[in-house]
Write a structure and sequence with these properties.
Helix content is 47%, strand content 13%. The chain is α/β, with parallel strands linked by helices and 306 residues long. The strands form two sheets. Strands 3-2-1-6-7-8 form a six-stranded parallel sheet, with helices on both faces. Strands 4-5 form a two-stranded antiparallel ribbon.
Length: 306
């Protein structure tokens, strides 16, 4: 049934803001793509060589990269004194509430997103992109899962496009995608005017149903057949995205996704072993806004070092 999921009407969980976020992310991703050249021999029977109507969509946090991209980005920003301590404290409690509660109360989430966006308001997009390049080298490069990277390369070697799909800011996602030699990235789009952040989002964070809408919009624009595409994620929050494609994979899955994947006979891959699996990293900050997760993680790191 997963192969036919893309033919069915959208579930009601996809709100108008989810659709807007997905379409905005797809448009941003198409503006920043390139081909890859590395070689791999992973799973030669799949993907199918030369299938131009197929592509692959990879979640980022704990799927491609160990831990959350926003956590690592937040470390770099704090190191560069990008945030005030009082801002970090505010985001720390907001992020802690979200993780402990495990639910997304609309009013609370809106407050968290507005607060996070106020941090980047007035800063230039080019500034964060440049900083992102440096932070990738400092904190992210060594945390890429080789197994997942090989899966992505297999799609590239088959002549297919490969996209990251993440709740992280699209500018960060594009940096990571470019460094890995992937096609492009779908991420949360923060509004900017003349290259300066306004402090607003376009739609909502690319999380849950919004990810599925982004993939749907990009597939339509690229002329892809979703029943021939693949998607990879570690989180049950991405079941809407995984259900869209004909080849869903659970990578380093959380408990709920593992159970769901086994029930539907989806393929599973787990690149964590022993102690590494137990401490795979800070949970992804999806759904709390483009920066809140990273700032919360940064202040936690700062406190541990004191």
């Amino acid at each position: 049934m997963a192969a036919l999921g893309w033919l069915t009407p959208r579930r009601r969980s996809a709100t108008a803001r989810s659709v807007l976020a997905g379409e905005a992310s797809a448009e941003a991703a198409r503006k920043s793509s390139q081909e890859a050249t590395e070689v791999s021999d992973v799973e030669p029977e799949f993907p199918v060589l030369g299938d131009e109507q197929a592509a692959a969509f990879f979640d980022l946090d704990n799927t491609v990269m160990q831990g959350a991209a926003l956590f690592h980005f937040g470390r770099g920003l704090y190191k560069r004194k990008f945030f005030e301590t009082r801002d970090l404290a505010k985001f720390a409690w907001q992020q802690a509430w979200f993780r402990l509660a495990g639910v997304e109360d609309p009013e609370h989430m809106q407050d968290a997103r507005d607060s996070a966006l106020s941090i980047v308001k007035g800063h230039r997009v080019a500034e964060l992109t440049s900083i992102g390049e440096e932070i990738y080298d400092e904190y992210m490069a060594e945390r890429i899962w080789p197994g997942t990277r090989a899966l992505a390369q297999a799609h590239l070697d088959a002549g297919q496009k490969v996209w990251l799909v993440t709740a992280a800011p699209v500018e960060i996602a594009q940096v990571i995608s470019r460094r890995l030699g992937l096609t492009g990235a779908l991420g949360t789009v923060a509004e900017s005017v003349d290259g300066v952040y306004t402090g607003k989002l376009v739609g909502e964070p690319l999380h849950g149903p919004a990810k599925a809408e982004a993939v749907r919009a990009l597939a339509a624009a690229e002329g892809l057949d979703l029943s021939r595409c693949a998607a990879y994620s570690d989180s049950h929050n991405d079941i809407p995205m995984l259900s869209l494609v004909g080849h869903p994979y659970a990578i380093n899955p959380d408990t709920k996704l593992r159970k769901h994947a086994r029930k539907l006979d989806w393929r599973l891959r787990d690149y964590r072993t022993g102690r590494k699996a137990a401490k795979v990293g800070i949970p992804a900050a999806a759904g709390v806004g483009a920066v809140a997760g990273g700032t919360a993680a940064a202040i936690a790191l700062h406190r541990r070092r004191r």
